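Database export, one record per block. Field names are fixed; values are copied verbatim from the stored entry.
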Amino acid sequence: MDLIFLRLDNIGVLMVGEEGNPEKFQWAHILPSNKENRPYYISEILPWDTDKINLKGTIQAIEEELSRNIEEGVLSKNKERALLVSVDTTSKEFQEKSLKELDELAKTAGVEVCGKLIQRVKSVNPQFILGKGKLAELEVLCLQTDANILIFDRELTPSQINNLAKITERKIIDRTQLILDIFAQHAKSKAGKFQVELAQLEYTLPRLVGKNRAMSRLTGGIGGRGPGETKLEMDRRRIRERRTKLKKELEKVKAQRAHKRLRRQKAGLPVVSLVGYTNVGKSTLLNVLTRSDIYTANKLFATLDPTSRRIRFPNEKEVIITDTVGFVKYMPQKLKEAFMATLEELNIADIILHVADASHENIEEQISAVREILTEMKLMDIPEILVLNKIDQISHEEKIRLQHMFPEGILISALTRENLDILVDRISRTLPTKRNFIENKSKY
């Protein structure tokens, strides 16, 4: 801890005899990246005048090794390197699974992950999240891997972020901030950008902290003389004003979407809504079913904005299929609130097509996470068709196992179009009749 927090090159202990004469010497220093992942080295106890001790040469070698990553160009331009940190009371297995998803989120945000740290605790430290010993270990790991960001797999309180920032020079980011950053990168429509900005402002406002008054910006005119507002107060006021404006704009978006939904209802077309965990292939399935070219990519939250397409089923049935934003565990509450305008598309759905990734190791948890959100939105009364996508990536034995685990599910591959005819037939049979359709729509 002293080596890290006091910025010492090394710590040495000189041992003296009963008469005060030097006898033995021992020293310690931090280590660069190594196979054993050791954070520091402690020497053996040696005679104080031995010629084996070369502290100056040792420290120079360590400095050269720690800076080698940058010199060799490992840190690519415009790319940040992050350490992922999980501190929780849950099991280590659960933490590892959650960190794996955080890893995918970080890569989607364009961050290079260069290490992970897991600590299981009886109770989370309310001040620093980690104990000081683990914080020191984390700092050594940052030095060894040349990491400039710490991403925590939880939402940090404003005081925790502030306390951590006093200890480390690394940028501190939590799970919520990372998801918001991804959404900001991927939002394309005007409404989507409004929603992301609103969520970011809601996140930022309680985290604005400051002590010094900004004396340079003064309001002019009579009654405006004096120190004026503090910069912190001005920042907060501007955020509140911008937040109010965004909420008004989003109300307009809601009204426009409600008008579009009303037109669909008058046309008498049933609505099938695609929902599911992020990166399960919803947009790919929509493209295949409707012969569209919506953007798809093998990364989390590749598409955010709701998309609707019309499709003609057998027996002259026409249907509107809508795609929605992908879900994720621990979806930030502020983000859910901001995206209600997007998820309102689900309220008028006649069928919810719940798409899951059959090849994912945590498929059960992902399905549960989506159903929890649907329950929270009071949408479980709408008929659900469970679609287990990406079966082209699993073995025959795994297909049998999934069929036993989810007997109601339909195993498909949107990529190879396997079993799409079975899915279309199920949708067609589940669609309400014209009379029932009109009765159901009258509720809304």
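Remark 1: The first strand starts at residue 11 and ends at 16.
Remark 2: The longest helix spans residues 231-267.
End of record.
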